[in-house]
């Protein structure tokens, strides 16, 4: 079994990555490293910055993702600033409240949004694999459901919020699930670089 490191402190992301990469006989462990300043202007650029830093530190293949919410009525905001939307130490609920406040008075038909996830894997030899996934939905008027994390309670797909979905159901339709499956397919095609 090959070991990859995940350049994230987020245990939810680690669980998702483990579930999807297990069939490829890849184990994933989270790596503790100083937060990388996300100076990229795109999700893909930020994912690369994190993966490259983790690979350099550990000498192992490193996977990172950068993901966020883009709301049409807010011209794509919060975008790459999704995690920092309500300030550096804000909670998920702080971010949700700021988002709902920004959308106050916006009617249901104008609340379209999408989650975007960019994944980057950097290998010690400099090889890079990238993948991306999107999930389209809309923003609810109030949080619904107890599961998930981040903006999940206000992101609706087919009338249900991400926070109302089980892990398997969410994996099937989520931006991260789609990106991870695309990433796994790329890895499968290029086994020689990690086996």
Automatic annotation (TrEMBL):
Pfam families: Ham1p_like (PF01725). The keyword Amino-acid biosynthesis does not apply. It comes from the Bacteria. Keywords: Hydrolase, Magnesium, Metal-binding, Nucleotide metabolism, Nucleotide-binding. Binds 1 Mg(2+) ion per subunit. Its EC number is 3.6.1.66. Its cofactor is Mg(2+). It is an enzyme of class 3 (hydrolase). The keyword Hydrolase applies. One of its GO terms (biological process) is nucleotide metabolic process. Mg(2+) binds at residues 37, 66. It catalyses: XTP + H2O = XMP + diphosphate + H(+); dITP + H2O = dIMP + diphosphate + H(+); ITP + H2O = IMP + diphosphate + H(+). GO terms for molecular function: dITP diphosphatase activity; ITP diphosphatase activity; metal ion binding; nucleotide binding; ribonucleoside triphosphate phosphatase activity; XTP diphosphatase activity. Substrate binds at residues 8-13, 67, 149-152, 170, 175-176. One of its GO terms (cellular component) is cytosol. The active site is at residue 66. Homodimer. Pyrophosphatase that catalyzes the hydrolysis of nucleoside triphosphates to their monophosphate derivatives, with a high preference for the non-canonical purine nucleotides XTP (xanthosine triphosphate), dITP (deoxyinosine triphosphate) and ITP. Seems to function as a house-cleaning enzyme that removes non-canonical purine nucleotides from the nucleotide pool, thus preventing their incorporation into DNA/RNA and avoiding chromosomal lesions. Belongs to the HAM1 NTPase family. This is dITP/XTP pyrophosphatase. It comes from Caproiciproducens galactitolivorans.
